[in-house]
UniProtKB/TrEMBL annotation:
InterPro entries: FYVE_RhoGEF_PH (IPR051092), PH-like_dom_sf (IPR011993), PH_domain (IPR001849), SOS1_NGEF_PH (IPR055251), Znf_FYVE (IPR000306), Znf_FYVE-rel (IPR017455), Znf_FYVE_PHD (IPR011011), Znf_RING/FYVE/PHD (IPR013083)
Organism: Amphimedon queenslandica (Sponge)
GO molecular function: guanyl-nucleotide exchange factor activity; zinc ion binding
UniProt keyword Zinc-finger present: yes
GO terms under cellular component: cytoplasm
Pfam family, one: SOS1_NGEF_PH
Keyword tags: Cytoplasm, Guanine-nucleotide releasing factor, Metal-binding, Zinc, Zinc-finger
Protein's name in the database: FYVE, RhoGEF and PH domain-containing protein 6
Length: 424
């Protein structure tokens, strides 16, 4: 009874600080869980936002004073999903995906990010279970974002691309950026001449040619293919240039490491997105969401020198061709050490398996220092299992064997150490 009274007083106190909210926050079944300030990433800037998490909803508000807030929107937890972004330039960030809203939020530290994600995930699971028990909303137990136009996409920030994400034409002051409101891509006007009804916006909005084709296929699969010509293409699509395959790289599947670096161009240092692929080539992009590289550098044969004090890495061409030399520097010492290790091994035709930079899927350890099990942040959010029990190494065994590598047409000696663990 005391806890219920404290909960009611807390909700009433929150309600008094928020302006613009229609209705009442105090409901019999509602429980207050958590509040806190997070940074919301928009297309161009980051803005502080105050979030109030309850047992069934998440309130998104804008600070207007020391303890006053303006209501922005309300997200029902039964239609929300929390995820780690595949690539994020903002540290300690996560995605909040809802039916009518989707955005990237960032915390002040890794601990705060993990706390928000796990608390949100727990509240979402509890609300889904409650909805199931009431025999309503069972279809919402897993947020299905496959329906065209049914859910708000995460809009790719303007600064994350320098070219159209479909035709790869570079943007200029005249050749403007547009956002596809169905998938979130940044595209040019030529690649987004279509409009479609989007359920989450309840109106027609601009969509790109890729989403237009997806919509056509969806209509066809629903037995309405006779109404739409699936082969219709815009003039821009028919004249679209073919991107050379040597300039295309799957950042997710084919990258050894990646990140923003400063590339030397005469006396200037330009910020670029570098990716070392598993083909041992260095791909250079202007921005990390670009679909086409500005150039590639095959690393085998290059001589690598580095200066830790200035965090500069030099690639010197093996035939002393100065125009093919390359110098770049990293933005911090940890990235410098990673890049040195990767490019040195690539220059010697060795693949260095390191965690991909900027992926944000860091491992988070639980409990005492003796515990050796860890999970990624996304695994923690998605999993309903308890944290694994501590493990203690019992015995070790070393063995070696030869393995044939077809790509190198040679055999290599592989050494392995097997460790037996017991659960405490």
């Amino acid at each position: 009874m005391i806890k219920e009274l404290e909960n009611s007083n807390e909700i009433l106190a929150i309600e008094r600080t928020i302006t613009g909210y229609k209705g009442t926050l105090l409901l019999a079944h509602r429980r207050f869980i958590k509040k806190g300030m997070l940074q919301k990433s928009s297309r161009k800037t980051q803005t502080p936002r105050m979030f109030f998490l309850f047992s069934d909803i998440l309130l998104h508000t804008e600070p207007t004073g020391p303890s006053t807030y303006k209501f922005k929107n309300e997200m029902k937890l039964c239609s929300v999903r929390v995820e780690v972004p595949k690539v994020s330039l903002v540290p300690f960030s996560f995605e909040l995906l809802g039916t009518n809203r989707a955005f990237i939020l960032s915390a002040r530290s890794e601990e705060e990010m993990v706390e928000w994600m796990t608390t949100l995930a727990g509240a979402i699971r509890n609300e889904e279970e409650k909805m199931k028990s009431l025999k309503r909303g069972e279809q919402l137990s897993t947020l299905d974002r496959s329906g065209f136009g049914s859910f708000a996409p995460i809009l790719v920030p303007d600064q994350s691309v320098s070219m159209c994400q479909i035709c790869s034409e570079e943007f200029t002051f005249i050749f403007r950026r547009h956002h596809c409101r169905a998938c979130g891509r940044v595209v040019c006007g030529n690649c987004s001449p279509f409009k479609a009804y989007l359920a989450y916006m309840n109106k027609e909005e601009r969509i790109c040619s890729v989403c237009n084709h997806h919509q056509i296929r969806q209509h066809s699969s629903q037995g309405r293919g006779d109404e739409i010509d699936g082969d219709v293409q815009s003039p821009a699509e028919l004249s679209r240039p073919i991107i050379p395959s040597v300039l295309i790289l799957d950042h997710e599947k084919e990258a050894i490491t990646r990140g923003y670096v400063l590339e030397q161009d005469g006396k200037k240092w330009n910020r670029c997105w570098y990716v070392v692929g598993k083909d041992l080539a260095l791909y250079k992009f202007k921005a990390h969401e670009d679909i086409k590289a500005n150039g590639t550098v095959p690393l085998p044969g290059y001589r690598v020198t580095s200066d830790k004090a200035s965090m500069t890495i030099n690639l010197i061409h093996h035939q002393a061709m100065k125009e093919l030399n390359l110098s770049f520097k990293t933005e911090n010492l940890a990235d410098f050490e990673t890049w040195v290790e990767v490019v040195e091994k690539a220059a010697q035709m060795e693949v260095c398996e390191v965690p991909v930079n900027q992926d944000n899927r860091m491992s988070v350890s639980y409990g005492s220092k003796n515990r050796v099990c860890s999970k990624s942040v996304q695994d923690i959010v998605d999993s309903e299992e308890p944290v694994p029990a501590p493990l203690t190494p019992q015995s070790t065994r070393r063995t070696s064997f030869k393995a044939f590598v077809p790509e190198a047409n040679a055999s290599i000696l592989v050494s392995c150490v097997f460790v037996n663990f017991v659960v405490q």
